[in-house]
Amino acid sequence: MPQKFRGIDRDTKVVLKALEKAGFEIRESKNGHPLVYKDGQMITTFSKTASDRRAFKNALAQIKRQTGFQWPPRH
Q1: How many angstroms separate the most distant Cα atoms in the chain?
Q2: What end-to-end distance do the CA atoms of the chain give, in Å?
Q3: pLDDT digit string (tens) for 42-65?
Q4: In a 3-state reduction of DSSP, which class is residue 64?
Q5: Residue 42 backbone dihedrals phi, psi, to 5 degrees
Q6: What's the mean per-residue pLDDT of the chain?
Q7: 38-43: long-range contacts at Cβ-Cβ below 8 A with a sequence spacing of 24 or more?
Q8: Could you tell me the strand order of the sheet in which 41-45 lies?
């Protein structure tokens, strides 16, 4: 799957890989944007290159609200 996260900024790649490791499914929209699914239900969409930091934080907040996923992970 090296092509899966092609063209996506570094911070988003790290989160998407952690989400996959936590059991989430990452699909790609027609336009190449990552779609995050848990148990077959879409949770949120990340943009490939966020135009502002809020878009990234809002997507993380949506995941946290619906699934309890913490970023950065707490040990």
Answers
A1: 36
A2: 28
A3: 999 998 877 778 888 999 999 999
A4: helix
A5: -70, 130
A6: 88
A7: 38/66, 38/67, 43/67
A8: 25-28, 34-38, 41-45
